[in-house]
Amino acid sequence: MRIAVTGKAGQVVTSLIERGPVAGQEVVALGRPELDLADPASVARALEAAAPDVIVSAAAYTAVDKAESDIDVAYAVNGAGAGAVAETAKALGVPLVHVSTDYVFNGTLDRPYVENDRTEPTGVYGASKLAGEQAVLAAHGENSAVLRVAWVYSPFGANFVKTMLRLAWDREEVSVVADQMGNPTSALDIADAILLVATNLVSYSNPALRGVFHMTAKGEGSWADFAEAIFAASAARGGPTARVKRITTADYPTLAKRPANSRLHCGLIAKAHGVALPDWRQSLDRVIARLHSAAA
Prior knowledge:
Blueprint (H helix, E strand, L loop, with lengths): L1 E5 L4 H12 L3 E5 L9 H11 L3 E4 L13 H22 L3 E6 L22 H17 L3 E6 L2 E2 L6 H9 L4 E5 L3 E2 L2 E2 H17 L7 E4 L6 E2 H13 L7 E5 L19 H7 L6 H16 L1
Helix pairs in contact: 1-6, 2-3, 3-4, 5-7, 7-9
């Protein structure tokens, strides 16, 4: 199976490039300049030339705070760009897997979100990603799976895990927000799951395999819990570590408002696709081990 994925350097894309061959799949990564989500014509040209069996829409504008002032670009990439990918997938007659986010919710519920809960983004990033979901479903909903992920980390690129380890090199204590809850999720696990979902879409026409799904790791925690687990796993390998000072969201103001509750319920994708991601602490340990080995 030949998989065309949008983007070249993101965490999910890089993980797909690594995990695809392990699963016996060919992954073709397409990014700028040949594919620019802000240029719909380039999207069509690049994807048509790739001649894929399935498309994974993984590229996105992910600078959450910058998006608050970069509104037009965020919507062009995350909204219209996602729609252009979906339109091309429909024209080619191939399935589409679109990666979305927990930021489509406002985070006020006192339980994990399910797929049909009301969407109400609190910032431009979340709103632009919701626009992308809507564009995908409008253009190619009959043969697409929209996967909402959250709190993504990996051995690649910039992410919370690598930031914490970097800070621990020269700080004894790191302040981390403790009143936002979510499901830390390894991009490597996301990639494995995307490969399974993509295979299912290509192999079966069952409508239950299409639609919107939540897909995060098993288990939950706050950012402070996440940081403490990072430092514990690092310390166990002789790597950098620090104490965690638990603070509130109010103590760490940001341009974009983050959801207090980013927890996603993943029962639907388990039932439809047989996808159940590992516990986040187990996957975190594997990522820390890789980072420690690379540093050594």
